[in-house]
Amino acid sequence: MKNERIYKMSFASVYPHYVTKAEKKGRTAEEVDTIIQWLTGYDQKGLKKQLDTKVTFETFFDEAPQLNPNVSKITGVICGYRVEEIEEPLMQKIRYLDKLVDELAKGKAMEKILRK
Questions:
Q1: Residue 41 falls within a domain, yes or no?
Q2: What pTM, to 2 d.p., does this model score?
Q3: Strands (E) located in 1-116
Q4: Contact present, 60 and 67 (Cβ < 8 Å)
Q5: For the range 70-78, what are the long-range contacts, defined as Cβ-Cβ under 8 Å and sequence gap of 24 or more?
Q6: Which Gene3D superfamilies match (predicted)?
Q7: Is residue 116 situated within a structural domain?
Q8: What is the CATH number of the domain that holds 38?
Q9: pLDDT tens for residues 17-30?
């Protein structure tokens, strides 16, 4: 995988695609934000700041207050890779987020997405 290119991408440039994917399936931007906040520990203000300053994925996850302790419960395949087997820590975090947004778009209940 060409990870370096993904790591240097602006999180703000990909965020609208997460929202669009969710909204096409009847979900909301607020639900996407909830997922991101659950995963990263950002609050709404912190998430907005990261979007406004157009940080890279690398910076976005480096500055995340705290990765949710339940991330190990996120399993399955995304982009042809099992998320629990991805060895590169940053790529695994990015794929965790992709997987959660994918679950949202597929209609999974928020309680299950947030591993409650």
A1: yes
A2: 0.93
A3: 77-78, 81-82
A4: no
A5: 70/115, 71/39, 71/96, 73/115, 74/99, 74/100, 74/115, 78/102
A6: uncharacterized protein sp1917 domain
A7: no
A8: 1.10.8.290
A9: 999 999 999 999 99
